[in-house]
Amino acid sequence: MMKQNAHLILIILIIGSHYNCTHSTTSKIQLEDNQEFNINPFEPYNGIPPSEINGYHLVFNDEFNHEGEMKNEYWDSETGFRRNNEEQYYQSENSYCSNGTLKIIAKREMIKNELYDANSNDWRKKREYAEYTSSSFITKKQYHEKYDFILMEMRAKLPIETGGVEDYGIWPAFWTTGDGPWPHAGEIDILEYYNGYMLANFAYKDNNGTKWKGNKAENAANSKLENIINGKAIGFKTDKDWLNKYHTWKLIGDGKYLTIYLDDVFMTRIENDTKNLDTSKIKYPFKDNKCNMWINLAIGGNPHPDKEQLSKTEFPRTYEIDYVRIYVKNK
Q1: Considering the entire predicted model, what is its pTM?
Q2: Nearest in space to 249 (alpha carbons), one of 198, 197, 187, 290
Q3: Alpha-carbon distance 115 to 21, whole Å?
Q4: What is the DSSP pairing of strand 88-90 with strand 129-134?
Q5: I want to staple 227 with a disulfide (CB 3.0 to 4.6 A). Which of 138, 197, 233, 329 is the partner?
């Protein structure tokens, strides 16, 4: 069954260009004249993407409405072991599009490492086999946009069962890296879930290494998924069905700040003119610098060093992405 809500599509088509449309992933779509249309938070959204939101113009989107593999003209797929000593071996076979969403499926399965080298000191090569598989995708370079005036959005359902120990090692993410060497070119984790925390982070270069700024350091209790579900986190209401619903993550750059939102609730922000303390390569990671978009589902790695505990986590896990969109404002 493809994404539904035909009556809503018809209404929007009739309204045409008279209104700018925005929507809330939790319950409704809001039009400029304050008309509201309820949507099902348990189902993919089948509306037409707004061409403009508050002066930001749509320049890239993938609604995942087709059946089968990811669109190669939009995305590059990662292969093999990649970073953070993670356990998963990335391969495109762990993903497909159906019924209006992209499914990234993490599995516990043993496969041969194609780069295996018994004499290598590189952890990516010295593992003969992988015990887990998943997928990771990055937008192609022609879809990179500047951080300064950007609105980047994803609607997704997380592969999380409780937010507790049952989800140990599960690491879904929606993030960006700037064009240039890491971390000088910046990284923004619009969504990162692991070890019970819903994280929103910014990374850049400090003289002592990588500098991280994020919501957990600012308010650890406010970033715990348990508190978001129970309404104890600022801006969130109690929602026992939270993990069964689709939610929206946004990054908005207004020329002064880059701000991250979850379901339109503020998570954290950073100034656009934040400067690398080490300016030898890039002075301003989030100003006059283009970025890409990543969506991936990692397993284990540095935040989850206990392999015995990971072995108790149930698989497969499905990270279900409804859509991703990029808007920019011309200044």
Answers
A1: 0.87
A2: 198
A3: 48
A4: parallel
A5: 233
